[in-house]
Amino acid sequence: MWISLENKQAVVFRLPQSVDNKTTAMLKRVQKCAFPIKYRPLLVSGSLKITV
C-alpha cells in the first residue's frame, strides 16, 4: 500500500482489491496523524481516491 499525490489536490491510496478492517483502521490513523483530510472515498480501478 502506498500513497501518491496527484496535482497536490488529491491523495490516492493504492489498495489491494479487497478492503479489510485493517486497511480501514490504517486510513483512519493516516487521517488523524498525518494531516487533516476531508475525504470522500471513491473506489476506482483499485484505488481509493481521497479528495483534499
TrEMBL record:
The protein's name: Uncharacterized protein
Organism expressing this protein natively: Kingella oralis ATCC 51147
